[in-house]
Amino acid sequence: MGARDDLEAYRRTNLARLLFESSRVLSARANDAIRAQGFPELRDSHVQVMVHLALEGSRATELAARAGMTKQAMGRLVDEVERIGLVERSPDPADGRARLVRPTREGRRFYRVARKCIDEALGQLAADVGEARVARLQRDLAHVVRALAVVMPDEE
Questions:
Q1: With 0-12 CB in 10 A as exposed, 13-18 as middle and 19+ as buried, what is 92?
Q2: Which pTM value belongs to this model?
């Protein structure tokens, strides 16, 4: 086996790529189902706002940092998600100069629909690979996230 073969095998099997690909496929399935459940304008990029948004509200700068994107790019996404009615901006009670992005009633409905769609996708995965494996994977990934010191919106 040559260096090129080693590199190709590594590219197909390294943990980071496997995590990325599994996340991408699961997200695509869930997003397709969410769109079919009454959110036809939702784009995959809009989910970056909703996934990183704390239920009590977040500043756009916080959303950008969590999503690993620029404030300007996140600002454009927030504008789009606000136009489709999933979020609204309001003054931050802790700092009147700042604005909080909060889910609207429709945004909270999005979360309920998303949960149902994700649960269905995970149910299909469990049917394919086994419930115990999926449960173990979820526990292990929670440990990985904590070990990597990733701060999730609901953990702040």
A1: middle
A2: 0.82
Q: Give the tokens for residue 146.
A: 């904590």
CA 24 – CA 41 distance, rounded (Å): 19
Indicate the SS3 state at residue 1.
coil
| Burial (CB count within 10 angstroms: exposed 0-12, middle 13-18, buried 19+), residue 147 | exposed
Q: How far does Cα 130 stand from its chain's mean position?
A: 24
List, for residues 77-130, the tens digit of each pLDDT value: 999 999 999 999 999 998 888 899 999 999 999 999 999 999 999 999 999 999
Give CA–CA dist 86/121, Å, rounded: 23
Instruction: Give the whole-angstrom CA distance, residue 7 versus residue 10.
Output: 5
- Residue 107's closest CA among 147, 156, 49, 155? 49
